Amino acid sequence: MEGKVYKSTGSWYTVKGADGSFYECRIKGKFRIKGIKSTNPIAVGDHVHFELDDKGDEKVGVIHSIEDRKNYIIRKSVNLSKQTHIIAANLDQVFLLITLNNPITYTIFIDRFLVTAEAYDVPVVLVFNKIDTYSQEETDEIKFLASLYREIGYTCIGISAKTGKNVDKIKEMMKGKTSMFSGHSGVGKSTLINAIEPNLEIKTAEISQQHLQGQHTTTFAEMFDLSFGAQIIDTPGIKGFGIVDMEKEEIGDYFPELFELKQDCKFNNCIHVDEPHCAVKRALEAGKVSWSRYKSYLQMINGEEDTYRMDMYGERK
Ligand SMILES: Nc1nc2c(ncn2[C@@H]2O[C@H](COP(=O)(O)OP(=O)(O)OP(=O)(O)O)[C@@H](O)[C@H]2O)c(=O)[nH]1
Ligand SMILES: [Mg+2]
Ligand SMILES: [Zn+2]
Fold it and tell me: So where does Zn(2+) get bound (predicted)?
């Protein structure tokens, strides 16, 4: 039988078969996919082939093969830096939810996420959530960030999953597509899905007042079919986002604004650090490339882990 993975808990996979029913499946023996070392060989969104194993009344499936992926989002966990994890596969787009505080999302996190999405061909929409809570100053900061990323070519939108502001616009963008919501714990991924499709009643939780962070309420990635012809994958909040298997020379190509300038650098293998006649550094000094983006870029090519964070002005926090 053929189906799509809707949920994975590590050892069990919930697969929706071509017949529309859900089957609980396991993986057959040692299952490895060539070229990808990840803690999870199969992820939500994967197309799989499975056989039913009749055990009494219970029908349990055994997955024996997986179809080639259109794309996927993979990350390195920060503390187990050798371990990589595929968050989801076969996506039409990802909505990255961002909040300025409760919890704080730093630009380095956004930029690491965007680099991976560029590398694996997944379009990203930046969603600034909780706009009902911001002061004038914070609203200005959001506007600044949105214009920065818009200039590079990313779609940006300010919303409130709580009041419903602009939620219809997200819904419109989701029609007919498979999307994923990602971002730190507590940014409102599950709340937004509930706002879009109230009868799902997905569990959400308040930010911890002690740590001003989310509580990791969603623990497994899960796909839902929505009533207006869309699919959404809710994911657990991620702390850091480590990029996987990228050469130093390659990273700049996943910053669209740097990639565009590269052809004007004197050296065609310029990594925009110390080389003379570098178009990126020229653009940086002229204020045409953002310092926060360039700082993120430097951190990535230097292989620095996401152990400390910077705010949008490059101050260590
Ligand atoms: N004021 C306000 N609160 C919001 C908004 N969106 C979400 N929240 C609140 O933020 C808290 C966290 O929301 P969740 O939906 O659980 O966050 P999550 O991103 O799913 O978090 P994890 O599952 O832990 O990754 C809840 O208390 C929500 O009510 C918003 O637009 N405005
Ligand atoms: Mg959640
Ligand atoms: Zn250069």
Answer: 265, 270, 272, 278
> pLDDT digit string (tens) for 27-76?
987 666 666 677 888 999 999 999 998 776 677 899 999 999 999 999 98
Give 262-272 pLDDT, tens digit per residue.
999 999 999 99
pLDDT tens for each residue of 100-126: 999 999 999 999 999 999 999 999 999
Instruction: Annotate the chain with DSSP letters as a single string.
Output: -EEEEEEE-SS-EEEEETTS-EEEEEE-SS---TT---S-SS-TT-EEEEEEEEETTEEEEEEEEEPPPS-EEEEE-SSSTT-EEEEEES-SEEEEEE-SSSS---HHHHHHHHHHHHHTT--EEEEE--GGG--HHHHHHHHHHHHHHHHHT-EEEE--TTT-TTHHHHHHHHTTSEEEEE-STTSSHHHHHHHHSGGG-----PPBTTTTB------S-EEEEETTTEEEEE----S--B--S--HHHHGGGSHHHHHHHTTSSSTT--SSS-SS-HHHHHHHTTSS-HHHHHHHHHHHTT--TTS-B-TT--B-
Among 204, 206, 211, 219, say which to mutate for ligand 1: greatest number of ligand atoms within 8 Å of CB: 204
